[in-house]
User: Fold this.
Amino acid sequence: MPSDRYAKMIKTLQRKLGIKLLAIDFDKTLVDIHTGGLWLRETSDLVHHVRPGVRSLIASALTANLRVCIVTFSSQVTLISNVLKASLPPECEADHIIIRGCSGDWDNDIDFNRCGKQYHLQSVMQELKEKHHMELTFEQVMLIDDDGDNVDYARRNGCKTLLFVDDGSLKALKSPKKLKS
Assistant:
């Protein structure tokens, strides 16, 4: 599933920007709809909404051993995990993708309106440090999100960012100068 185009984007992120963690929003970014954290239909119905470009980017990242996480305000992390498993080829090992949502399984009693996805990212970075001895800084994180506020918070904290509109937005990953940091 990873295409040469997305593999080149991932190489650019790793080599030119030093990215070690690719963080992707779920609603309106990985999938083309907003579930509102209230999806009641089958997982397979949501799999049809996975954006092909984002799916290929994730597959290319995993193939290149770039860490991937999903950061979302949704509490439906099991659903998101199942969507990833159904969307990605088995060799991508979707279980390696860390998912941080508002599910109560980590310290997320926070006013997200004031900080975007920063605590999500900090939690992922802490898990990578504890479980994989991987020390990261925000400068080594790329956040792709459809919400301008989340992108701005992340950028102000040192992350590289991409405001996502549609799969065409991913073209900016070819040219690091177009990315906000």
Residues 113 and 149 are 9 Å apart (CA to CA).
